[in-house]
Fold this protein.
Amino acid sequence: MTAKEVAIIGTRGYPSYYGGFETLVRRLAPYLADEGWAVSVYGRKGAIRADDPNRDERVRSIVIPGVETKSLSTLTSGLTNCAHTAYEKPDVALVMNVANGFFLPALRFRGVRTIVNVDGMEWEREKWGKTAKKVFHSGAKLTARFADEIICDSVEIKRRWSVEFGRDGHFIPYGGDEAPFSDDDPEFRAGTYVLLVARFVPENTVAEFVKAAEDLSQRHDVVIVGSSGYGGQLEQTVQSLADRSPRVHWLGHVSDDRRLFSLWKHAGAYFHGHSVGGTNPALVQAMACGAPIVARDTVYNREVIGDAGLFVSPDATAIASMIQLLMVDRQQQLTLSAAAVERAQKFYGWDEVCRKYVDALTSLNSHGKGRYA
């Protein structure tokens, strides 16, 4: 019996360690292989760790060049990857990101059934200019029209797609891994440092946090993980603060999961400032590691965190004040940590997440041409 074939499009590849999509693929691709699927993952040049000892050799990695610039990488990679997928004609394509909505008609024409993870409301992100926002919104419209099925990573995103595009979808969030047992982080003593893990873009409240860090670093170590990936003003601001203050530690992008998990596990306070999107993968992982969380007050963050964290407005003074209160209250740190772990285990386990993806792909594959049969 021929294996069911699935192509995964729209990430940096397998195995890669850049962001949430890549984390999902590292867990999902081997799981699909276990379930009898022949899995191909499309990626980008230079992003894949071919020598990763944890790589599952059953997963086929395909790299087709695109144009690696801030404005063109997503679209050009999507174009080349979708073109190759259309040529190969797998049973199903799992497509990440609505920017690839432009290429769904070609997959449909070739009889490839598609299920699209729509991610967040990309056209609302401040990091994009007017043209890019229009491109993402147009891609969303085409996704609503041509995708056989869609996946929404939060209940609120699912609601908005129903209201704005008239499409219902599968709700499948991201998962988190339990942090391995360890004593105090070798770099920083448990409960004594403030942590930020974020891509340096405006909608992640990085600029406001950096202003708050100037005050917080007078009393506590502040650890900043992340970068823009392209340089720019935010990176310059963070570097300047780190140069001025010996208690501000900018680690850049950290791809070592054990190190990152340890930082979350031992933080006295973790600030999560993401404001656009659904279930944020970093937030789920921080919860699974037991980080005491102070989060920007958004409908998405409240959906994920529930009562297992504190919420604050995107104002530097308010952020500094809320974090300072948490940093001097060890009992509250421990209470929030335990609540975060419990919530992550209850709602955001990887096994359940992967099972839902398998069910969605299997259902689509069993219905012939799906939405357009």
The longest helix spans residues 330-347. DSSP finds 13 helices and 13 strands in the chain. Confidence is low (pLDDT under 50) at residues 369-373.
